[in-house]
Specification:
Its EC number is 5.1.3.15. Keywords: Isomerase. Pfam families: Aldose_epim. GO terms for molecular function: carbohydrate binding; glucose-6-phosphate 1-epimerase activity. 4% of the residues lie in helices and 41% in strands. With 313 residues, the protein is mainly β. The strands form three sheets. Strands 5, 10, 11, 13, 14, 15, 18 and 19 form an eight-stranded antiparallel β-sheet that branches. Strands 6-7-8-9-20-17-16-12 form an eight-stranded antiparallel β-sheet, with no helix packed on it. A four-stranded antiparallel β-sheet has the order 1-2-3-4, with no helix packed on it. The longest helix has 6 residues. It is globular and about 45 Å long.
Amino acid sequence: MGHSAAVWDTRAAIAVSKDWNGIDQVMLRNPQGASAKVSLHGGQITSWRNDRGEELLFTSSKAIFKPPKAMRGGIPICFPQFGNCGSLEQHGFARNKLWTIDEDPPPLHPNDSHGKSFIDLLLRPSEEDLKCWPHSFEFRLRVSLAADGNLTMISRIRNINGKPFSFSFAYHTYLSVSDISEVRIEGLETLDYLDNLGQRERFTEQGDAITFESEVDRVYLGTPNCIAVLDHERKRTYVIRKDGLPDVVVWNPWEKKTKSMVDLGDEEYKQMLCVDGAAIEKPITLKPGEEWTGRVQLAVVPSSFCSEDLDPQ
């Protein structure tokens, strides 16, 4: 756990409480009143609110809050597999496991701590995990909330195994939107993508921006480190900055698929959009002792801001 003592009251910045299943959850706050909530079930961010108290992440009204089931919404972590393209359960096991608070993590850059409230979590494989995925690892996750309300996730995965292993990864980010038909994504134009609705066939994006009129389930490849999700009705833009994550998943189940999902309301596809920083097409391979870092920073800005203003770094 961390905070910047010189700036504001540290005791108010971080609170640990129990959810209704008795699982610890951590609330991070900043001086302006923004907040983020992280559950130790899955290391999943379940809430991110701005300084006006508006919820910025989508959670289904029919979400099942019952471990080991992953909750539909927030930001589940997909590791060591994304989707069903492997031998493990859908999206891997990290999102269904109980994480611990890491009291003494290896240090990060001072910029990742200064002026932020943050929590460090740790996942190590259980005997059961090693039976289905026989690789020893340490997965360290830092979630931080900055004074400007930006939310940052830093994942550090270390191979403590005697042999190399490979994995895919995503921060499966459910953004709350006013109406999916009023939303567009900028920054993915002209890129190749794998279409999960068509046997992962490879296509090239033709649109000036991505808009939504039907089900979309794509993995965009070789993406820039900064993309924008514009919500016209709310006149706000989500800015997603990432590092170590070359791919971006874009997903909305639309009407027909939603009706087949028990943990999503029939009309709720209109209020959500998943845009994930990810490493999927080329899995990450770690030799013994090697560590990988993947980070995403989420910000919200007024929509007068446009993609020309985006800093490519």
